[in-house]
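Loading example: each entry is read as three labelled lines plus one structure line.
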Amino acid sequence: MHALAGRLFPICRSITGEGVRRSLRMLGEMIPLELHEVPSGTRVFDWTVPQEWNVRDAYVANARGERVIDFRRHNLHVVQYSTPVRTRMTLDDLRSRLHSIPERPNAIPYRTSFYKETWGFCLTDTQLRAMEPGDYEVVIDASLTDGSLTYGELFIPGDTGEEVLVHAHCCHPSLANDNLSGLVVATYLADAILQSARRYSYRFVFLPGTIGPITWLSRNENRVNHIRHGLVLTGIGDPGPFTYKRSRRGDALIDRAMPHLLKSAPATTRIYDFEPYGYAERQYCSPGFNLPVGCLMRTPHATYPEYHTSDDNLDFLRPESLEESLRLLIDLVHLLERDRRCMNLSPKGEPQLGKYGLYGSTGGTGVDTRQMALLWVLNSSDGSATLLDIAERARLPFSVIEEAASELETAGLLKPLEHDVTFREAGDWRGESPIAGEKP
Amino acid sequence: MHALAGRLFPICRSITGEGVRRSLRMLGEMIPLELHEVPSGTRVFDWTVPQEWNVRDAYVANARGERVIDFRRHNLHVVQYSTPVRTRMTLDDLRSRLHSIPERPNAIPYRTSFYKETWGFCLTDTQLRAMEPGDYEVVIDASLTDGSLTYGELFIPGDTGEEVLVHAHCCHPSLANDNLSGLVVATYLADAILQSARRYSYRFVFLPGTIGPITWLSRNENRVNHIRHGLVLTGIGDPGPFTYKRSRRGDALIDRAMPHLLKSAPATTRIYDFEPYGYAERQYCSPGFNLPVGCLMRTPHATYPEYHTSDDNLDFLRPESLEESLRLLIDLVHLLERDRRCMNLSPKGEPQLGKYGLYGSTGGTGVDTRQMALLWVLNSSDGSATLLDIAERARLPFSVIEEAASELETAGLLKPLEHDVTFREAGDWRGESPIAGEKP
Amino acid sequence: MHALAGRLFPICRSITGEGVRRSLRMLGEMIPLELHEVPSGTRVFDWTVPQEWNVRDAYVANARGERVIDFRRHNLHVVQYSTPVRTRMTLDDLRSRLHSIPERPNAIPYRTSFYKETWGFCLTDTQLRAMEPGDYEVVIDASLTDGSLTYGELFIPGDTGEEVLVHAHCCHPSLANDNLSGLVVATYLADAILQSARRYSYRFVFLPGTIGPITWLSRNENRVNHIRHGLVLTGIGDPGPFTYKRSRRGDALIDRAMPHLLKSAPATTRIYDFEPYGYAERQYCSPGFNLPVGCLMRTPHATYPEYHTSDDNLDFLRPESLEESLRLLIDLVHLLERDRRCMNLSPKGEPQLGKYGLYGSTGGTGVDTRQMALLWVLNSSDGSATLLDIAERARLPFSVIEEAASELETAGLLKPLEHDVTFREAGDWRGESPIAGEKP
């Protein structure tokens, strides 16, 4: 995943343009991603799809013709969606167009102006302070023209039409954790799901920020009612512990499943209530949709100093963090696929588990975790509790409870409820991660 | 307010009598208070309006004719509702009639015997210990005669018949915090409300303890169903932080509004659950009425040493505490007047706030409190949440959320629900306290 | 109670057999316990009543004929339900049949093998390490034959058919706290109930572990719907503080009553949520029954080192702990018998308590606990709250609230609701413990 991120990193992405297309095509080499183009000017709810922005070159050169700011060195040097410019001006006149971070003097900030026509440059504060008074040549060789907004989508059908939505942002140029991490982990997750039986259908969407989910929602308004669970993936490659932000509903299954899985995480994790600032969950959770979509991060946006600067680079992105994030998501899929409500077929008193080889024969000592899990599943399975309910009440990992339920089903002591059977027979989400190995 | 309290302080109030009438007439100079007289002997639920008590003089004089206890020096020297007496007795015989506080030797206690005929004197423990054995002349020149119970009421009509009840006690003689503080703050609050447009009607009642609210409830039994919110004001002039005691319901709007406003208070405040001991809320919250009436105090009764003694005097009453209490109540009225449920008119995704001048144009940095408030109001306004609900969820002050809602309404992105519109157009509770300045 | 436990201690009980019969007959000298016999082979839900096990002698003797392990010295020396054996074998061959506790070298463990045919001995680790290599004579003179499972039951009819179930285990040999404590306290409790009027009927069952409650439930399947409250008593004679484990429902009345009573206990007590491991509550709370049955312990099973060893002896059993456990249960019966919902007959404002002699006449000072209890009962008695509800809200002991309710009923200010009247007139559970004194 880190290698894939390395290939994507140099491309200059924005909310539209060639960089987005190149990036999505690169991911399309791994998974059968479908590219969609939505023409500039298309009305999408309260918004309008903007013109397409492409930039060929941009620089500020001093009197000696030396490029003191050079887009060719770093994509972040140009304010995103800058209008074309070709002029000469003094440093004093230019200054209000230059963005730096005094308290982080060697980092280039990331700045945008998608919906107000302007232009500007971003540079390190060290660069800025080194600029001498005098005249400068200022060039942004960019185009803002009618074109289209590009996004990627992959629908993986399951045995039912109930959908799981997985969202990753595809718009930031040369920022690694935000959000190449989400793109590469989502791609590997999709690949894993493609290789497995499943009851749910899965829909992966790779969209630019804000206008992306608004455009997608506007084009899929009548389809979103199939979404049962959803997750926005962003900033999941840094070394920090996991953070889960609940959906607006707060009590959706995903809002219980993620905290449950995170209880088993090695480090302390954070669970946040929904708030209407953040990523695409802002749109999925707008009151007109109110979808059960949460957001998975590691260190939350804007709370690490590398955020939205050139320091969010490939060094900041950790292979082991990407791997751990993928494993967590595979555990989540396993939970969603295997969760079910069951009926205890021997509900009066406990069944004699020893008869079925499920219980030790020597009495007088205690029980182990597996036996506790068997007892919990039997005691709670009156048709109302899901396996996740049971895992929460028993304070045992879902996987342990699910294993116990499967053993009891094999022994004929338990059966899943009708609807959940359908779901369950489709699912084959037990054991190891289905990822086949390294991808190119 | 402190000056007004200073004029009221010397008057000898009780649960009936001339002192109450004089006090209410003095308040009537500021606000159009209506005085009601309920004849002695009137049955009010399980109680009977008592005889009217008036005291002209009372003293205990020693053999040399010196008044060692003298009602003319302090109203508290006589046990309230003492029967008339004119006799001579030895100190030993008199002793059981004398009340002092050994652990607070220079304070005169406040004692009453409203419903059992007896008489007695209160004095400082220093006075008591200075009394020499021997004969004393004992005089209480008081009358207990058929008359009436007096109370004051002010009804301020609003655009709807839904009422807010504000209660202050008017019965304690020469005790400043308990409860001249409540009377003067309520008077100034009424004056402020009179000068403003409003959707709610407001009912101010100035009543003696226990028998007062029972009498009032008995005469207004069929009217109390108009009361939507109510508050008993008592002990709100001392230097301590605020205390709010919830209504019996515990989840009335007032029970959420007061704690919300107190979160912004400068000092740590206390929120207490209802208990059936305290002030007039005992009667308003009796099971036959169960009105949404809470109680606002600063330091709770009986937990400060000055309580019910001559040390609860004008020095103990702080002008700045009275002012702060009034401001809090004006904030409460603002909240009640302006709270409403709204509909987001652009509920699918976020509206493009920048189009309406409500959002900064440069992206890549965070949002400020105002923008968060806009996002919260939009995200939560599905017609179910009130602005107070939103403020609580957003952990932002009501005033900030309300301001955002007004901006969105102006922009045409939000509209209040029908019923709340009616309410809202009447209200004009924005900006500064409407109090015009000093009153005589 | 300790003396009674002392008589029961030497008897070799198991889940079936003569020891159980002798024990139950001994308890039957105090209370009219009925003995039931269920034939071996009877199907009881998923189980089968096992053969009856009786052991006459058992030993391991060394080459010199000395009994190095001797059942006659301690009942725990034989693994329960050992099959008969009479052979010679070397220490090496014997070793896998010998159970000791290395970390507690002077204690004999308690081991069983009820449902898998095997045999074995238990001994102290000191004994084990003293055994020299060589040949041993190994004898277990036991019989496993068709017979019956024996249990005791006592039904004490009350004025209604609503039942309280009290369960004690009767199966462990020569273990004092686990569970002679439960048997003797239950016996004394039954005796106390027999001597009192009561609205509830009480059903005491003395059963062997696991197969006992399963057998009883299987034979009383259509009767259990009468059970309103139930309690398993086990390990209530050790010096530790009380532990209450909630029923599966978690919100049954017993689940609130026990924690309420334990709040007044002298030591810190523990309240545990239900889990499906433990005692007979596992069966009563299986999903096919889901009865409101909790479990009362002192130190929880398996958390004290004496548990399931020969150190759980008569010294470990404390007379004062047994007495305190009995008093708690009598308080529980008092609560169940006297709990009721009442109507305040003077619900508008407070009644004038002074008229009824229920309130002090001098005002200006505070109220005492009794007066607070009167106010709480009046304020809360709108027909929805039980006295336990009120006690919980008021944070006062049930007995204080109940006393206040009785005073108010006497004064004509309160009346219990119809259904609760029926219940209440039957009950006579006020004042002292009805236990007549020492029993043989």
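DSSP finds 13 helices and 19 strands in chain C.
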